[in-house]
Specification:
By secondary structure, the chain is an alpha+beta fold. The chain has helices at 10-20, 41-57, 78-83, 91-102, 119-135, 183-190, 201-204, 246-261, 284-323, 334-342, 390-397, 408-418, 430-436, and strands at residues 28-30, 64-69, 72-73, 108-112, 146-150, 160-161, 166-173, 176-182, 208-212, 217-220, 224-229, 234-240, 353-356, 362-365, 371-374, 377-378, 402-403, 423-426. The strands form four sheets. The protein has an eight-stranded antiparallel beta sheet, with helices on one face. Strands 6-11-8-9 form a four-stranded antiparallel beta sheet. Strands 17-13-18 form a three-stranded antiparallel beta sheet.
Length: 437
């Protein structure tokens, strides 16, 4: 039974959640917090079937599956799992189907970026993610869904350390045992940070134990060692929250952009003047001094530009993630592409209806021209009153259905938004057209 509001409200994230988790630093099991309307084990298996279908079509997608027997990753078995005739029935039929494919009683199937193939799970668990973002904050790398399905005796990765805060949502149909150790305790027990495989029963006796049942969500703080065990088949979905270090964002994106602006523009720019012939007698010392002088000068100028570039990058990242429902933005998002393909711009006519596909949102970037994003795709539509006014954007983000008026600027904007894969379009009915005629 769900003992929490759905979705969790602001008071949960600002009060209940930090109180139970010692200010978000210790594991805690929230019983019955995820209702079946948000996610089920069958939804995960349906997502795997979509991956199999994409494989048969030769589609290049981000979501991918891995097969494990014991602790061994068996890439040789994956083609069989992707191409065999589908199982007939529910999870009860899936288990013998997988056992026959892998030639073993116990197995595990791990699926990354499940949200990119399952609109159902993207929306259902996206409701939880949105409440988390609104109440706790936005992970700057977004989040993803990693599914674990199987009847494995222990997680294939052994007892291992988690590097991000995460929630493990358990979907059943059977229970799972989960064990956690603070990093200091695990290092004291094992003498290091390496994963532990094999017989770790003695370690389990020293762990904090949680019994996960369908609808439960376990909060796993970063740097906590953990492992799951089970006797019967079940499915869980981990939701890691990617909070990239600021230094990593600066190193990978912002600093290179700043330096690229200072690298000189064309052969006539003084910065592109060729280096002098190096004096053989003086050796490399003079070259090093010149490099250091130019580098110091460039970095001095770059320092003054970092703030502006950081602001631009942060606004872009913020709007992109929010528009994608908080899920990390990746290439090869099959669900996005299929939604975009299903959107027929010729059906965007007065009287047609549009709604946003959950959990995606329309967000804005303020640049020389204000632009809108939906599902992480920048469309470059000017947000003026004639095209897409703020009231319309707010209504769409609140889940409203908009009946399109006879406004050509708005219709043009909607056609562009549809290419993002974030809009659902209900064409104008033939009855309405006949009535107007």
């Amino acid at each position: 039974m769900n003992t929490y509001a759905w979705p969790p409200d602001h008071a949960f994230w600002t009060g209940t959640f930090p109180e139970h988790t010692a200010a978000r630093t210790t594991p805690y099991l929230f019983k019955g917090i995820i209702p079946a309307i948000a996610a089920t084990a069958e939804d995960v298996l349906a997502g795997f079937e979509i991956i199999r279908r994409a494989h048969a079509a030769g589609a290049d997608i981000k979501a991918h599956a891995r097969v494990y027997v014991g602790k061994e990753r068996r890439d040789d078995l994956l083609p069989k799992a992707l191409t065999a005739t589908a199982w007939s029935g529910d999870a009860n039929a899936f288990v013998p189907w997988m056992q026959d494919l892998v030639g073993a009683d116990r197995f595990s199937l791990v699926i990354n970026n499940l949200e990119t193939v399952s609109p159902t799970l993207a929306a259902g668990l996206g409701t939880f993610l949105k409440s988390l973002i609104d109440g706790w904050g936005l992970p700057l790398g977004g989040a993803e869904q990693v599914a674990f399905a199987g009847n494995y005796a222990g997680t294939a990765f052994g007892i291992h350390e988690g590097y991000e805060d995460a929630f493990l949502v358990h979907l059943g149909p059977n229970a799972k045992n989960f064990y956690c150790w603070p990093a200091e305790q695990y290092e004291k027990l094992t003498g290091g940070k390496e994963p532990t495989f094999g017989d770790y029963q003695a370690l389990l006796e020293q762990a904090e134990h949680f019994l996960l049942e369908p609808g439960d969500a376990l909060f796993l703080p970063r740097r906590v060692f953990h492992v799951g065990t089970q006797e019967t088949f079940s499915v869980s979905v981990a939701m890691p929250l990617y909070t990239y270090p600021y230094a990593q964002i600066l190193q990978s994106r912002i600093i290179p952009d700043v330096l690229a602006q200072l690298a000189g523009d064309g052969p006539d720019d003084p910065l592109n003047e060729p280096s002098e012939m190096a004096d053989s007698a003086a050796g490399p010392g003079a070259v090093a001094e010149r490099l250091a002088a130019v580098g110091t000068s460039l970095l001095h100028v770059a320092t003054g530009r970092v703030r502006g570039e950081a602001r631009e990058h942060a606004e872009q990242r913020w709007a992109t993630l929010r528009s994608n429902g908080g899920w990390e933005l990746v290439e090869g998002d099959l669900a996005r592409q299929e939604a975009a393909d299903a959107f027929d711009p010729q059906q965007v006519t007065p009287g047609a209806e549009i709604t946003l596909i959950a959990p995606y949102q329309v967000t804005t970037i303020h640049d020389s021209v204000e632009s809108v994003l939906l599902r992480g795709h920048q469309t470059g539509i000017a947000l003026d009153v004639a095209a897409l006014d703020r009231d319309t954007v707010s209504a769409l983000n609140d889940g409203a259905t908009i009946v399109l008026p006879d406004n050509q600027e708005l219709l043009t904007a909607v056609r562009a938004l549809g290419a993002t894969g974030g809009l659902h379009l209900t064409p104008r009915s033939a009855d309405t057209e006949d009535t107007d005629a």
